[in-house]
């Protein structure tokens, strides 16, 4: 159990470092405008189910042995890049730490979920190279997938309710 918590912490750290790099990398104004436009197009008309679908698809792909770690790094970097672009366009965000968005209830839940998925991906590839049986790896992986899906559905509802409080949603 102690070893599993260590891997979980490493998975969460991998995501946070990737996010931080994306949030701090220098991007040009034109690049930030394009990133912001793409993000706004993607979230147009989204609701709690869309948030859940987006997050769960990303998280489930992070469970792929080995490849999931790369997906987690890419996802963290991309999320940080979106914050970066938004901060360049919105002066109110320029004085806020990029990590502040992650200390919200839904942010913590998402970081935990992504860390769990990333760490399981790394553990799976390691165990498969050690020739461990898929049968031994299947049960803990399925349990963790159920945990991640459950957490992300709750996180999506929390995130959506926060969004509705911050911006006026047309009916």
Describe this structure in words.
By secondary structure, the chain is mainly α. The protein has helices spanning 2-24, 29-43, 48-61, 67-89, 91-94, 105-129, 134-166.
Output the helix-strand order.
Answer: HHHHHHH
Helix content: over 70%
Stretches with pLDDT under 50, minimum 5 residues: none
What is the overall silhouette? globular
Number of strands: 0
* Cα-to-Cα separation, first versus last residue: 48 Å
Structural class label = mainly alpha
SSE diagram, text form:
Elements: H1 2-24, H2 29-43, H3 48-61, H4 67-89, H5 91-94, H6 105-129, H7 134-166
Helix pairs in contact: 1-4, 1-6, 2-4, 3-4, 3-6, 3-7, 4-6, 6-7
Question: Concise description?
Answer:
The chain is 80% helix and 0% strand. It has seven helices and no strands.
